[in-house]
């Protein structure tokens, strides 16, 4: 274990423990689901939960559900009359994810939508206090444009993977590395948007936090 791994372990040891259902979801995702690194995990889950408790949102939009770790983490942190709308286009793991929403006892707080977020978002007549972007990296900028007018003044947008394994600072990005290019384009867009305040947290794979003025 190198220093960074030791430090990461120390951080986790001094962060509130995961709920048992999230530990089980983490384990089962790694055993059964393709690309388990897409799962938010302990630290980011607790950060999202803490932010939700601070903001006290009525409505949350999540773009990119995967197996539901982040949605459940946020659902544990919001009031019973609050709602999370989470969108994912992978119907192959829908049953798996819904099972864990039920196991966690948060299915009544979550509206799980299957389909293309680009098509679904314009049809949503809802104002959001929080939007969490964690979908297709090439479409981050498009997601942002689609949700911006639906975010309340003083509301927040969070974007995962804003550092993209450090590729955002590499000098020679391959022409076909569209995900990295998508993240870089998004980060530059956010930095130049005077309608918001933003800070990029070096948490996990980078968490961009934006507040709408």
Describe the structure using short key phrases.
single chain, 213 residues, alpha/beta, Rossmann fold, 7-stranded mixed beta sheet, 39% helix, globular
Structure description:
There is one protein chain. The chain is built from 8 helices and 7 strands, in the order αααβαβαβαβαβαββ. The chain has 213 residues and is of the alpha/beta class. The chain has one domain: Vaccinia Virus protein VP39 (Rossmann fold, 3-Layer(aba) Sandwich). Helix 3 (42-55) runs parallel beside helix 4 (69-77). The longest helix is centred in the first third of the chain and has 14 residues, at 42-55.
CATH topology grouping = Rossmann fold
| Overall structural domain count | 1
CATH architecture: 3-Layer(aba) Sandwich
Mean pLDDT: 96
- Computed structural class: alpha/beta
SS summary, helix count? 8
Largest sheet data:
7 strands, mixed
CATH homologous superfamily grouping: Vaccinia Virus protein VP39
Strand order of the largest sheet: 3-2-1-4-5-7-6
Q: How many strand units?
A: 7
Percent range for β-strand residues = 15-25%
Could you give a quick summary of the protein structure above?
The protein is an alpha/beta fold. The protein is built from eight helices and seven strands.
Blueprint of the fold:
Blueprint: H1 3-13, H2 20-32, H3 42-55, E1 59-63, H4 69-77, E2 83-88, H5 94-103, E3 110-114, H6 117-120, E4 128-133, H7 140-148, E5 151-160, H8 178-191, E6 196-201, E7 207-212
Parallel strand pairs: 1-2, 1-4, 2-3, 4-5
Antiparallel strand pairs: 5-7, 6-7
